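Handout, page 2. Input:
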Amino acid sequence: MTMYLKNGLSACMGLWFLVSPWVFGFEAQTNAFFICVLLGSVQFVGSLLALGKSGKRVWQNWLCLLIGAFFILFPNVFHVELMAYFLFVVLGFLTILINYANLYADEQ
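Output:
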């Protein structure tokens, strides 16, 4: 997979985290709503800024990796339904893997 594809997938996951409060109906939980919107937006923008970049010095990939780690913890902090729990954990883990692969890929 090229860096563009990996960062594009990470950006798509950021969009998913951004819209997930409306999809799962927890927009009434103010803290969970704002955290999802804020971190999903940051992941989306960070992934777009990292398009085509790889290596340990790309701060956007580090940022997205940390956001992925937070989204694994998110459903434990804010109690969400089972399907949301599953998707947050799986997509958070995939975010970590994709950005880790970008950080430790051969620099071009």
